[in-house]
């Protein structure tokens, strides 16, 4: 549906998007994540046609759209600030695109009402945006997009101005919308949960380049590099400094551990980063390692325990049973199969 | 509590006295003009400051008819309406472009417009006159409309640009996503949103165009606008001391400072000059 072919964006001499190749299937929900300033919004706006493309090509629905006007691309966008027209009522806001197309008032009203019903906005149609709550404005912004029945929806951090509870609610609503409309959606966020729950595929960006593209669970379980491993997952993966002890074993936190399932061989003495997720540190069997508990973040159902395995080897572990206490020294277990190894450049060793 | 309220009330009163005097200084000339305009010649000569005893509207009729004020009035209305309409239209378009669109040289254009704001009308009077004459617009209302537009446009553009800069760019982008082209964005989004600024500009420009004498004197030499008519009346050799007060009843003023007394034609000149 959307094909980005080596697109780049330069502002002055500064390259913000650097040769991105990406292909989004029809009906797919793709989420862009990455640290602030990595170019997520810019890439989205390049798809929308709001940002000129310095080099490369954008194809949408099988047509080359690199230089097409935003509207002609058949995409609709929901802005972070909603960007509702303050002087128009909700109905006029939602019907604006139809009005520009030259549709009659009656048909416009019919289409707006149909869209409003989907988003439970029926009773608000004659209000101005100023008289709406944040969540309602958000829904109007989404409504404005769906009225046009576009091929592609683009969302730029649509939920970041909402409070936590509303955010969860709207997240579910967007997921439901995607199921009923079955349109292609591209969604920018830096909220982990939104990315993991909504996405069919996640695109991790850093410094204007794609670090990895994949299903949420793939990125979580099988990251390509240190950056993706650290970026996906909260609290983030623990990285422990290690040294290869043999072709398939590493010395880490005073232990020598055999890492099963490696297809490449380690050079003995090679420095590696050993990645281990917090929830993998409290297995019931496997290699045992002592932890000195320094801080406990108690959440009720579980606790995040901060401590160190050895001097200068801090880790976070997820605790699901019992009530850990600060100052205790407890044995942790992990399964060597859960270890992820990265080389000095941060590339994954598989 | 009560003491504080009393003190507050006293300070209000202290402030009210100069305010009242100021207000009086604005209202009195209007009263004076209307009062005398209703007197007959004789009444005016006998008692300039007393209240009118036998009011007559004959003076107004004379001014309207014999002094051709009816004609001047139409000129003033047409020219002011034309110029203000054109000013609002152009300044809103240009302000939108300068504030929202990205095109090369937009900063330079904005600075050039700001620079034009610094030039007093008097400095460019001669080349301005030559230009109007050369274009064959002398003694035409269109010429005067264009002249007003030219002189008052820089400030209008500056104000609209500043106003539109305060609006989020996403509004423009949302409208583009909705399929609106440049003029449609302007018409459906920018123009309605610019209403507060346009209203202010409309009032200011109306006052300036209506009260202008200098530019009008140069461009409409034998047709005259109302203000030129009034100014001419004042200096005419006919002993029509009566016709002047009714004439000046037509005059609206932007501020009290120019209300104080009758001055030469130049007093209503460039409102933008420092
Ligand atoms: N108009 C512009 N001119 C110059 N640089 C720009 C412009 N717009 C964006 N940038 C730069 O491009 C980079 C990417 O910006 P972008 O807004 O895409 O980041 P982002 O990933 O959306 O960040 P965030 O998560 O904070 O929204 C930033 O370094 C930013 O400074
Ligand atoms: Mg952004």
From TrEMBL, chain A:
Pfam families: ABC_tran, OB_MalK
An example molecular function term from Gene Ontology annotations: ABC-type maltose transporter activity
Keywords for the protein's UniProt record, in alphabetical order: ATP-binding, Cell inner membrane, Cell membrane, Hydrolase, Membrane, Nucleotide-binding, Transport
SMART domains: AAA
One cellular-component annotation, GO: maltose transport complex
Keyword hit for ATP-binding: yes
Top class in the EC scheme: hydrolase
Entry EC number(s): 3.6.3.19
Ranges of residues in domain ABC transporter: 2-232
Annotated family: Belongs to the ABC transporter superfamily.
Protein name listed in UniProt: Maltose/maltodextrin transport ATP-binding protein MalK
From TrEMBL, chain B:
Residue span of region Disordered: 236-274
Low complexity composition bias: residue spans: 241-274
InterPro entries recorded: MetI-like, MetI-like_sf
Any one cellular-component term (Gene Ontology): plasma membrane
Bilayer topology annotation: Multi-pass membrane protein
Residues covered by the ABC transmembrane type-1 domain: 73-274
Signal sequence extent: none
The organism's place on the tree of life at top rank: Bacteria
Keywords in alphabetical order: Cell inner membrane, Cell membrane, Membrane, Transmembrane, Transmembrane helix, Transport
Pfam families, per the entry: BPD_transp_1 (PF00528)
Subcellular locations according to the entry: Cell inner membrane; Cell membrane
Membrane-spanning segments: 12-34, 72-101, 108-130, 142-164
One of the protein's GO biological processes: transmembrane transport
UniProt main location, coarse: membrane
Function: Part of the ABC transporter complex UgpBAEC involved in sn-glycerol-3-phosphate (G3P) import. Probably responsible for the translocation of the substrate across the membrane.
Record note on quaternary structure: The complex is composed of two ATP-binding proteins (UgpC), two transmembrane proteins (UgpA and UgpE) and a solute-binding protein (UgpB).
Family listed: Belongs to the binding-protein-dependent transport system permease family.
Protein name: sn-glycerol-3-phosphate transport system permease protein UgpE
High-level lineage: Bacteria, Pseudomonadati, Pseudomonadota, Alphaproteobacteria, Rhodobacterales
Record gene name: ugpE
